[in-house]
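Q: Could you fold this chain for me?
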Amino acid sequence: MLGEGEWTSFVPFNELPRVLNPPRNFIASSNQRAYPREYPYYLSTEWDPSYRARRVYTVLYQTYGAKVEDLMRLQLDYYEVLAERIVPVLIEEYDKKPFGDSLVAQAIEILRNLDYRMEKTGVAPTIWYYWFKTYRNYIWLDEWKYYEITADYTWGHNSLNMWKPLLEYTEYITREVPNSPWFDNISTTEIVENRTIIMRRSFIDAINKFKSDMGENVEERKWEKINKLYVEHMSGITEFSRGPYPLSGALKLK
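A: Sure. Below is the predicted structure, expressed as structure tokens.
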């Protein structure tokens, strides 16, 4: 007897996702979903977030007569598309009605000047990491706790794919649905939270944690103090392992 998850047939060969000489003049993949939403066959749900692919497409669309050196730069590119999409909304909320103390104000000003490149010598990437991780928890954890959903596992091949909904959905409601019911904390009955409230609360909490972990001197808290590469030897023997090495680039947001 077949189990519920057994294969019962194959996708017809001629209907497999494919592309040949597209008008954009390039083909690129960064482990993102490789077919449109209306594709009629189930292939998988285990796709990496789309942000690397979106950056690759942006750069390649702007690159004409690409040379090896251009693609080498792209391979080492550490522009954070997710921050580019989310941080301006936070800045807009702050500018409408400033909140928090002087340390919060200082952190906002640093983010205001973020060029979205996660440079290891920068401070803004550290603030971004502290805040977005907190913000994401503020949106989703109340429902997960209420329904006793386990929150300590990943799915797929990327630790970004946590128990929380896709990063793209967090981006969507942040930019397009400021009164989404997901912003409401179901454990608070006296108020219905929206994006404004959640952004303010989460940023103040994130900066307080930043202060607790790293001290009040914001300018000294460079990204390289957090974002480090450690290469563990397959044997698990510490002496054979290497690192940690300070690193530019985005940290996996668990």
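A (continued): The chain is about 40% helix and 5% strand.
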